[in-house]
Amino acid sequence: MHNTFTPSPKAVRSARYQFLLVGLLSLNFGIVFFDRNALGFLMPFIQPDLQLNNTQVGILASALSFTWALAAFGIGKLSDTIGNRKLLLVLSTIAFSLCSFLSGIAGSFALLLGARLLMGAAEGGIMPISHAMVASEVAPERLGLAQGVAQNFGSNLLGSFVAPVLLVGFATAYGWREAFFLAGIPGILTALLIWWLIDEPKAPAAAKAEAPKVSVVSVLLERNVLICVSLSVLLVSYLVVCWVFMPLYLTQVRGISPDGMGWLMGTLGISATIGAFVVSGLSDRIGRRPVMIVMPLLGLLLPLGALYYQGSLWMLAVFFFFGWGLNGIFPLFMATVPTESVDPRYVATALGLTMGTGEVLGGVLAPSLAGMAADAAGLTAPLWIMVGLTVVATITALFLRETAPSQVRKAATSAAATA
């Protein structure tokens, strides 16, 4: 599996169906992130009410990431094995919506921890399944853009823009528990839409009969998959540390009001929503590798701006907007590059590895360690951790092998011309 995989021709679905599929899966994942991010945005209300310290705040984020990772591994592999991706997606969507209600009734750290563990288990398999469905139905030349929109458009429009603005305002008016109840409703609706409007993708029978069995280890050891797993660990760490501790830093250290914090964090959603089209589409044209090398460096702007810029909130929002641009490459290392590097039958397995490992080593360990660092050295410590993660991510991306079809064809044409 050391060469970029060249897929066999597949039946082409109508452009209308491809648009419907990507749009609905993007909306569904947006609701996933609306629920997931709710805890961080509501933490300025929850922390004093439940009397949590920063270490406990980090543990709550780690708990969801841990069970999210297990589900990404297990459900991704299960969907490859049984083939019924649509049913698994619907059941997972309903389950995580119910878990949002559980978060709202939690009266202690232990009960809130249990609710977040269950939510992670419900949510973790959704993106590997969704990306596998997109890969099986969307034309290869539009795969980067399609997977970028599926993962980043809805998740950032709803989870990173609407969520902080709506939930903080709702919690201010009615309470943080009621905000969790609000967050749980939309998932039930999207589950029904997926069941009604989306078809179960058909596996190519001939390819299935001819292809040899491939172990999870051999998928992991494919060079691009291994590098993407490493990037996932580093940048999921960056993402989760920002979600968990940036609201606390802005309100407790910078003295910004909860409403001001909500709008600043909402800027991240606007940035990544635009990036869902711009960054992924750019990678289809100029290649995955150069985009994935450059974008992590933009991530320096966000923590350094929060630490040192003392001007207006509007200008600070500009730092947040461009710094969060690195979010645009998440679909590339979590989905597009692994998809283009392995046999199509093992796409959900590869995606489960990139997402699951990122959640275990990044999403689980990073917020807990950042929380301990914040208790020991103050809330500036998590922001310096974010700085270090971006630098290492850029270095790691240098070792990627290009997989974009446009660039692979160009390289093949060039090689044939010089032969």
Structure characterization notes:
This protein has 419 residues and is mainly α. The chain has a single domain, classed as Growth Hormone, Chain: A (Up-down Bundle). It has 18 helices and no strands. The radius of gyration is 20 Å and the shape is globular. It comes from Xaviernesmea oryzae. Residues 21-405 form the Major facilitator superfamily (MFS) profile domain. It is found in: Cell membrane. It is a multi-pass membrane protein.
Describe the structure using short key phrases.
419 residues; mainly alpha; Growth Hormone, Chain: A; globular; MFS_trans_sf; transmembrane; transmembrane helix; Sugar phosphate permease; MFS_dom
Strand content: under 5%
Please state the second-level CATH architecture: Up-down Bundle
Please give the CATH class: Mainly Alpha
* Broad shape: globular
- Element string (H = helix, E = strand): HHHHHHHHHHHHHHHHHH
Overall radius of gyration: 20 Å
Instruction: Enter the CATH topology name.
Output: Growth Hormone, Chain: A
Annotation field: number of helices: 18
- Cα separation of the termini: 25 Å
Largest sheet: none
CATH homologous superfamily descriptor: MFS general substrate transporter like domains
Which stretches are poorly predicted, pLDDT < 50 over at least 5 residues? 5-9, 204-211
Number of distinct beta strands: 0
Total of domains? 1
